Structures are given as C-alpha cells and as structure tokens.
Amino acid sequence: MGDDPVGLLDVLLGLAVVAGAATALTARRRMGAVVSFLVLGVLLAVLWSRLGAPDVALAEAAIGTGVTGALFVDAVTRGPPAARPPGAVPGAVPGAGARAGVSGALAAVLLGAGLGTAFAGAAGAGAAPGGLTGQVLGRMDVAGVEHPVSAVLLNFRSYDTLLEVVVLFVAVLSVTATLGEERPRHPAPAARAATLVWFCRVMAPVLVLVAAWVLFAGSDRPGGAFQSGAVLAGALILMDTAGLGPGPDHGRLLRVALVVGPAAFLVVAAGGLVAEGEWLALDPVWAGGLIVAVETLLALSIGVALTVVFLALGRGRVSPP
Amino acid sequence: MNDPSALLGLVVLGPLALVLVTGVLPERWLPPVGLAGAAGTSAAALVLAAHVGRSGPVGHDLAGWGPPLGIVLRADGLSALFLALTALVGAGVTVYAASDRAATGDHPRFWPLWFAVWAGLDAVYVAGDLFNTYVALEVVGLAAVGLVALGGGPAWGPALRYLFVAVLGSTLLLVAVALVYAQAGTLELLAAGERLASSGWDSRWAAVLVVVALGLKAALVPMHAWLPPAHGSAPTAVSAVLSALVVKAAFFVLVRMWFWVLGPEPVLAVVLGLLGALAVLWGGVLALAQRHLKQVVAYSTVAQMGYLFLLFPLTSAAAGDPEVLRAAWGGTAALVVGHGFAKASLFLSAGTLKSVYGTDSLSELARVVRPLPSVVMGMGVAAVTLAGLPPSLGFAGKWQLVVASVGSGQWGWAAVPIGGGLLSAAYLLKPLTVMLREPQDRARPLPESRSASLRVRYAPLLLALVPLVLGLAGPALPDLATTGGPPGGGP
Amino acid sequence: MTAGLLLELLSAVLVVAGTGFFTVGTLGLVRLPDLRTRLHALTKADNLGLGLVVLGLVLQAGSAGAAAKLLVVWFLAMPASAVVAHLMSRGGGLSAAGSAADGPGTPGEGGSGGG
C-alpha cells in the first residue's frame, strides 16, 4: 500500500487533515475544537494506512482518537465553564497571543522547510541508501514473531519500547500527582442510567475479547500491546462511565496492574543479561514465548495506565490555581 | 565485574526499576529506599566513568543485535563526564530530599519521578542511537514537567508552559532525526555521522532544526522565557535537579549531534556563540533585577548556560589546532561540571532558607548568617565557582575558554567569560551582602524559624566545595572529556 | 458480464448508496434546528449508511474471516450509536438524575459552532 504513487485521494486526505487541524485550532467553542480533534484523528488513521503503516493507524485510532478523545470530552464537560474568551491564559502577559502566533508561524516555517528539503533531496537523489527494512526482513527467522513491526518493537529495538512504556508510566505518575488519586464512590445502583448499564454489560466483555484478539494478532499481522491496551482502556472507561468501573477500593489492584507490565519487561531484560550476556537479549528458542508474555502484561499495564489517567479527571472540578 | 559494558545498561535499568519500586511502596519506606537506590546508581555510574577514563570508550549491543539493526549503547569521555556529574549531584540532592520533606513538595510521587529523570539522563548519556536519544530526552522532559507540577497550584502554569516547550523541542528533534535517517540509512550515531560526512550532504536544515529543538530545551536565549518561572516555582530538590542536570542533557545532545553526526557549520556556530554571549549578558542583567532568591538563581542558570555555547564557534575556528581544541573542550567540560555542582548547591541553600524562614524574598533575609552560617557559607562558595574565581572549576573553565579564543585568533569571544564573571559576581554578591549585614531599622523582623537538620544545612556546602577541590585536579577533566573525542575534532 | 465484474459493480453501488446516506445525514446535522432532530437524522444515516458501506466491502473481502470482521464492525457500531443517541436525547445524564455538569443538550448554538 505504501508504494502506490500519490493519487487524488491522498491529496484530498492531506488537505482534509490540514483543514481538520485548522478547525480544531480556531473553533470558537471548546467542544467544537474537541470534535474537530476527533475527526482529525480519524483522518490521520486513514492517512497512516495510506502510507503503509497499519500498526500506527491502529494506534492512532485507538489511543490518539479513542482514549485521548474521551479524556478531552471529559475535561471539557467537567472543567470550569469558559468565563473568558477562549485562548486567554490566566495571568497571561498582554501581547502573548501575538508572540504565540509568531513562534507558531516560525515553527511551521522551520518544519516546512526541513521537510521540504527532504522531499527535494529524495526526488533528486534517486535511490536512497535503503534504510533498515531489508535487514529486518532478513532476520525474521530468529525474531520469534512473524510480523516485522512486532519483531522490531519487541526484539530488535526492545529498548526503545521499554523507554516508551516508561514515558507512559511517567505521564500517569504526573497526572495522579497533580490531580490526586482518590476516586469518588459510584452512584448507587438505582441512580445509574439503565441503558448505559445494559450497554456496558453487553459491550465490555466484547471489548475485552477484541483487546485480547488485537494482542495476539500482533504476532503475525498489525496489532500488539499498545493497541490492545488502548482497547482495554476503552472497556474500563466505558465501565466507569456506567458506574461499574474501578472504585476507591481498587486502588491497590490498579497500582499492581500498572507496574506488572514494565516489571516483566525489566525481568526479561535482566534475564537476557544473565543468559546471553547482553541486556534484553532473547534466545531464539524462547523469543516467541517471552515476547507474548511480555506483551500480554504490557497490554494490561497500558490499559490500566490510560484508564487511571481518565479516572484521575473524575475527581471532580479541578479548581484553577 | 568481568564485563563493564553491562554497566551501560545498569545505569539506566537500575533507576527504572527504582521508579517501579518507589511507585508502589508506602510513603514511609521511600526515603531509605531512595537513598539506597541513589547510592547504587551513583556507584554504578562512577565505576563506569572511571573505566572509560582508564580504558577508553565502552560499547554494548542491546538485545544481542548489533548495529544497524539493533540499538547500541556507548560511553565515551563526554558520556563519562556527564554520568559522573549526574551521579554525584544526584546523590547529594537525594540526601537532601530524604532529609527534608518540603524539598520534595511533600509529595511521595517525587521519588518515582526523580528516578525516572535520572534513568532518562543516563539513557541520554549512553545512547549510541539517534532515535533512542530522542526517546530518552522525552523521558527526561516529561518526568521533569511532572516534578515541576509537584510545586502545587502556582507551579501548574509554568509546568504547562514547560510541557509545551519540551514537546515542541522533541518534535523538531524527531524531524531532524528522520531527515538524518532518510539520508544516512542507519540510526546508529557513529555510522550515521560517517555516512553523512562521506556523502557530502548539506546538513544545514537538519542542523538548524537540531539547534532550535535543543535550544528550546536548554533555554538558550531567546527561547529561555519558560525557565525562570518553572525552576523558581518548583520544589527545592526539583529546581536543583532541573538547573544542574536537565538543561545540561539538552546541551549534551546538541554536542553529540553537532560533532558526531552533522558536521561543521561555521555560520551557525557563530550564531550559537553570539546567542550564548547574549544569554550571559541578558541573564545576568535580569538576575540582578530579581527580588527573590530562587529567581536570581534561576536567571543565573540562563546566564551560565550561555558560556557553554562558546564551544561551537571556538572549535569551528580552531582549524584543527590541537591546543585550541583541547582548551575549548576542557573549558566547556570544567564549566559544565562546576556549574552543575554550584547551581545545585545554590538551589538547595535557597530552599533551606525558604523552608526555615518561610520566604525567599531578598528584602527579608537579612542577617541569616547568624543562625545559619553553613548555608550562607555554602552560597558563598558556590558563588566563587559561578563567578569564576580561582581555584574553582569555574575559573579553570573560563581561563581555558579565554586561551582557546586567543589561540584561534578570535579575541572577541574572550570578553564573554571575563565580562560574564563580573556580572555573576554582582548578582550573587547582592543577596549575600543582604544576608551578612544587620537588618535595616525599618525592615521586618526575621520570621519565626523552623529548625533545619544537619544534613540539610551542610549538604549545599559540601556540594559547593566539590568544584573547588576539582579545580585543583588539573588536566584530569579535559583528558576525560576528550577520550574518544569527535572524529577529526578532538586531540 | 462476468461474475467478477458484476460483483464489483454491485459493491460499488452499495458503497455509493451508503455514502449517500451519510451525506444526507450530514446535511441533516448541519441544517436541522435542534438536538433531537439532528440525532434522528444522524442515527438513521449511521446505521443504514454504515451497513450499506459494509455490505459493499464484504463483497470485496478476500476471505470469510475478513468479511465476518467487517460485519462485526457494523454490529458493534449500531448499539453504540443507539445508546449514545438515547442518552443524549434524554438530557445527557449519565445517571438517572443527570449530572450537574451536563445541561439538556445545547441546541440552537449557531450552525457552524454546533458540535
């Protein structure tokens, strides 16, 4: 898919993405901006597919649009009402808007020039050195999984994935540190919306099943821990919205679930050092099993992490400083 | 340990394990576990640094895959220098944080976030891969934002601004990495640099992107406005770590990309030098005008970072002269280390004063030398390093920069360390004189004081003494900094 | 006409018809005056429009597994949009009493600002 020449559809898609971003930035109401952001996310997912990166498209749709969208909508409906014109920051210096506009324009120019020279170089140079695709495909027999992207993520360049999981963990830590961790009690059963409860009872198991499928599909087709974790987070967030999700009593359980994924990754890393002399090294015989095990626990941790970020917002209105 | 290359992974994965551990432990276990973890991490980093100093650069192939398919960790002299700095300053700040809960924002989440910053910093220093550098810098930046936000309500605005700056910088860096990868076909640092050099690619735009990205993160003037509010409103231990270590990581990545990957850019080098000079001047003037101690120290960071950017024009104009190159690298290394210790010490002292007296307003801190002589002494000793007086590392660094600028025929740059030293002395003497003299008649009486423990009173002084001692160590630092130096660049 | 060409033609007709429903639904979203009428337009468009598009794609699917997955997408989207529409029209309440932060929808806020 990524090798097709750029066609009319792609140009339209690119323009639509830019239009979506512009709408999100200039919308007069916050909800309008959030919805434009969601639309932008969907368009981006399609764009990634057109570029031949279905794993990224899945991640964009699940995390970028799904979970992040839920966070935005929750923040917009729970936050303090916009008492001042949108865009003004408390305590902002006069003229800050103009300065922001100038720096934004400068950044856009820089990025555009940089990417433009890349295009020009690629068009003029002809054959590029080829990158690493050939190398990856050549080693797939000892990778332990059949999907090249999963092999890169969890075997060849597993250190990067580990650090990225740490980034997610750090984000969760920062959010819970700033917003606090206590969760309010859910409304009593009589007060819950019956339709939503029914929907949750039907859908949540389906979503968990889809999450498991996406996780195991990652071995030989697009999928994997991050996408699976996002679907799992969707299920947990749905449950929370219906009043059936984790409550104040589940703090311990959530914390353990958060830690278990990165911990498993670190254990495998240390095991690699002990067994093979290098951190994160995977013996080809065990590689497949270890990767699946680590991915499963990672998916759990990622799902819980995204949910915890969502739950932290549920503490009620965040009072401005 | 038989294979010291395993230490390369340990200095990153050790703190990462501590992040997980301190994230789930109950609160009263955190200080002792934190201290033990800091001790272990520092020891590993120092052993690694010593090994590199003795035997040259060390490498480690992660996951058993060598480059270009896998990620390689690599520590050379520059890495060793920064690793050792982070280890010692980190240990000092951890001791302080374990002794004074207010220094951590009185929040247990300080500990996992602090170890995440430490892990990220070490990951940046030992990274041998371009994309890995980007991810490690993200870890550092996001954890630092979280730490700033621990300062409570007044810190949220500055933390958010810091987040925007950090993410913008990371995005630009990622685009630059993508450009390099597209041209070089590999993500490994050394190989990419060689391929770029041999292909004769015009790396100007990538260099501009890298400079802007890392200038944002290192608060290079004019992109510095986010730093004073963030460093000033963060909890004490956080400010110390941010000013002493986190901004240096961005400078480290800039040096790596400039000398090892992208290649010489003479015009851009002069621009960087001018911006550095401007930072020294502008940061110093603004520091003079501040009325709160923490703000003085924060603006001082902006000013002191300016000296580091003189490295670029000085090496660019050196034309391969080994003496000039050695002086330029040695001077920069000395200033990095000296500033790291001195700035951490200053922030810890300011934090002690604030927690004991409840204020850091200069007009109210008169005559605190009586009850807290060790703290004021610590501030004085740190000022010696920052102003560049002998025998401190600050003096050694500035002296070597002057030597390099004279030796390369660019006399103009010599004015920056000299003039900057005077400015530093001015803005640091100002609070010190307030603290040493009797309060004016109309001044408010000293607020009720809380007691400060022994460790809290002496940790800043000990940290400040290190650059003085190291200043007597002579050529050890320039030797370390240039072990495994840049291709065609170092002696 | 061969079976393959017939299949492609049928698939194209179905997808275009589905897109037509989506267009009509969007028109309704933009032009109708208040929340409930807009929901009416949207849900009709969503269910049948999506269904037609999915049916058209099923004809092009390479295997029974892929076809089944496409149908699952439709079967999951239908209850989701139905439940959301139901809740929004009832006053946006997530509990029986409705939460304080959400009002009874925001009709008539002006055409271009409506979200």
Automatic annotation (TrEMBL), chain B:
InterPro entries: CPA3_Na-H_Antiporter_D, NADH_UbQ_OxRdtase, ND/Mrp_TM
A GO molecular-function descriptor: NADH dehydrogenase (ubiquinone) activity
UniProtKB keywords: Cell membrane, Membrane, Transmembrane, Transmembrane helix
Keyword Cell membrane: yes
GO biological process, one term: ATP synthesis coupled electron transport
GO cellular component, one term: plasma membrane
The NADH:quinone oxidoreductase/Mrp antiporter transmembrane domain, residue ranges: 127-415
Transmembrane stretches, start-end: 6-26, 33-52, 78-98, 110-128, 134-156, 163-184, 204-227, 239-261, 267-289, 296-315, 327-350, 371-390, 410-429, 458-477
Membrane topology, record value: Multi-pass membrane protein
UniProt-annotated location(s): Cell membrane; Membrane
Pfam families found in the cross-reference section: Proton_antipo_M (PF00361)
Record bears the keyword Calcium: no
Similarity comment: Belongs to the CPA3 antiporters (TC 2.A.63) subunit D family.
Protein name: NADH:quinone oxidoreductase/Mrp antiporter transmembrane domain-containing protein
From TrEMBL, chain C:
Region (Disordered): 93-115
Superkingdom: Bacteria
Keyword line: Membrane, Transmembrane, Transmembrane helix
Any Pfam family: PhaG_MnhG_YufB
UniProt keyword Lyase, yes or no: no
GO molecular function: sodium:proton antiporter activity
InterPro entries per the UniProt record, alphabetical: PhaG_MnhG_YufB
Transmembrane domains' residue ranges: 6-30, 50-77
Ranges annotated as biased composition (Gly residues): 105-115
DNA repair found in the keyword field: no
Protein family per UniProt: Belongs to the CPA3 antiporters (TC 2.A.63) subunit G family.
Entry protein name: Monovalent cation/H(+) antiporter subunit G
Biological source species: Kocuria dechangensis
